[in-house]
Amino acid sequence: MDEFEIIRRYFKPGKKSASVIVGVGDDGAVLRPDPERDFISVVDTMVESIHFPANMHAEDIGFRAVAVNVSDIAAMGGRPRWMTLALTMKEADPAWIEDFARGIHLAGDRFGVELVGGDTTRGGEIVISVQVMGDVRPGQAMTRSGARPGDGIYVSGTPGDAALGLSIMQSGQVLDDRLKYLVRRFTRPDARVELGQEIADVASAAIDLSDGLFTDLEKLLGASAVSGCIELNRIPMSQELRSTIQGEDAIRFVLGGGDDYELCFTAAVDEIDELAGVPVTRIGNVGEGRGLTCTLDGITYDYHDDGYRHFR
Ligand code: ADP
Ligand code: MG
What we know:
Layout: H1 3-11, E1 20-22, E2 30-31, E3 38-47, H2 58-75, E4 79-89, H3 94-111, E5 114-122, E6 127-136, E7 152-156, H4 161-171, H5 177-187, H6 193-199, E8 203-208, H7 213-224, E9 227-231, H8 239-242, H9 247-256, E10 263-267, E11 274-275, E12 278-287, E13 291-296, E14 299-301
Parallel strand pairs: 4-5, 9-13
Antiparallel strand pairs: 1-2, 3-6, 4-6, 7-10, 7-12, 8-10, 9-12, 11-12, 13-14
Helix pairs in contact: 2-3, 2-6, 4-5
Bound molecules: adenosine-5'-diphosphate and magnesium ion.
């Protein structure tokens, strides 16, 4: 099967929406963005063995490649609309490509993103680049840089699950329902698109959690030139995580584990506990100065960040 057959068979969508003037099949995609909205573009690359285990189910790889990009759009308060896919593979294994493409289309349907183009090449390992384009009300995009002293620090969902799920998956152990839940939090991230759009009005700054709560919150605080303090007892942990690991181990996964694709944001409001059907928890406060500190039961907790870095 050559690449033209692969594209025709697996990546050519049946119908196009009105915003897609030219889709898959020509030299480029021609899109008609909404002139009333600001345009957002994000891209993320996933490399075999670095971003996902080589033996991960191809449908999950496809789904995840879309979801992690949609999450960046969500963190800006945007609406995802179109995507392109650059796919590099060692060989054209029809069973693998079919599963992978199903994952791409499942995520496309789930998040309302239309595949409008891409590139298909052979290479030494699997590399997947997805670009997602979307839009947001003019001037309403959330950035990392608007947090102000006095704001609350909020997080959605239960951080730490995905990193724990990845380590469970890599251990090769037999999965009961509890472990399956955790693994699925890694393989099928639920990008918080509706939540992102709802908080756009109240949040002063936002970021999505890809590298770990501590590292990502540090980025937000740094971009805003403020400090932050979070109370570890306030960070919500899933029942599945708590019954698998406890104490320092749990703290390490919750603060340092990546791949959650939850949203972390700051807002000058007292309490929010749920928005768009997603649990949201206030875990700390923004202050003057710089840096992120943690407390456990009100006592300073010395945490050394080991968030993921590609280059050190
Ligand atoms: P060109 O040589 O002009 O770059 P290609 O032969 O690479 O065109 O691609 C043909 C068409 O198929 C283009 O519209 C391209 O966007 C699309 N395409 C290629 N690979 C993919 C893919 N993996 N997913 C979606 N569309 C793809
Ligand atoms: Mg061309």
